[in-house]
Amino acid sequence: MPRLFTALEIPRNAAMSLSLLRGGLPGARWIDVENYHITLRFIGDVDGRTADEVVDRLDRIERPEFSLTLNGIGSFGSKKPHSIWAGVSPAPELYALQGEIERICQRIGLPPDPRKFTPHVTLARLKASRVDDVVHYLGGRGDFHTMPFRIGRFVLLSSRESVGGGPYLTEEVFPLQEAGGYSNFASMALQPEESML
């Protein structure tokens, strides 16, 4: 059974901005642009019955869509850095969604995730990169940020155990709710002006 995890996808414009951070760090294995994501909850290797139950419960989540911004970069592993990441600006809706997914997984019987949720996009995995090189790389790119982008769904992804960093396969898609129909109203309000052009 492949490893499963829930995640948010990174839209193309933000992914292109992230791709500009690639390079300039010896020992880095850069993640392919199409595999950028924000992990919400690692589920792991589960049997088919458990996977079906996870999908059934996740399908019942009713949360509003929201906006996110990627902001700043850093590394995990202070004395022996093992990955480079882009940060995510705090958003209450993101933490609420992640918290609900965590509660669902625990109710199904999966063990709690031992790591504190730190939303990020992994950009590179490091193998024998020197701390000085990592500090130098991060120092020149600390002002990184993207324009806000809309999160309209979350996904269940699978990965093969042997390959860290993708390729990932989208197993299921879970739409979030449109924010109160405001976007429909806004688009209707534009139509008369457009017809006059």
UniProtKB/TrEMBL annotation:
<dbReference type="GO" id="GO:0016874">
    <property type="term" value="F:ligase activity"/>
</dbReference>
<feature type="active site" description="Proton donor">
    <location>
        <position position="37"/>
    </location>
</feature>
<feature type="domain" description="Phosphoesterase HXTX">
    <location>
        <begin position="8"/>
        <end position="85"/>
    </location>
</feature>
<protein>
    <recommendedName>
        <fullName>RNA 2',3'-cyclic phosphodiesterase</fullName>
        <ecNumber>3.1.4.58</ecNumber>
    </recommendedName>
</protein>
<dbReference type="Pfam" id="PF02834">
    <property type="entry name" value="LigT_PEase"/>
</dbReference>
<feature type="domain" description="Phosphoesterase HXTX">
    <location>
        <begin position="91"/>
        <end position="166"/>
    </location>
</feature>
<dbReference type="InterPro" id="IPR009097">
    <property type="entry name" value="Cyclic_Pdiesterase"/>
</dbReference>
<feature type="short sequence motif" description="HXTX 2">
    <location>
        <begin position="120"/>
        <end position="123"/>
    </location>
</feature>
<comment type="function">
    <text>Hydrolyzes RNA 2',3'-cyclic phosphodiester to an RNA 2'-phosphomonoester.</text>
</comment>
<keyword id="KW-0436">Ligase</keyword>
<comment type="similarity">
    <text>Belongs to the 2H phosphoesterase superfamily. ThpR family.</text>
</comment>
<feature type="active site" description="Proton acceptor">
    <location>
        <position position="120"/>
    </location>
</feature>
<dbReference type="InterPro" id="IPR004175">
    <property type="entry name" value="RNA_CPDase"/>
</dbReference>
<feature type="short sequence motif" description="HXTX 1">
    <location>
        <begin position="37"/>
        <end position="40"/>
    </location>
</feature>
<keyword id="KW-0378">Hydrolase</keyword>
<dbReference type="InterPro" id="IPR014051">
    <property type="entry name" value="Phosphoesterase_HXTX"/>
</dbReference>
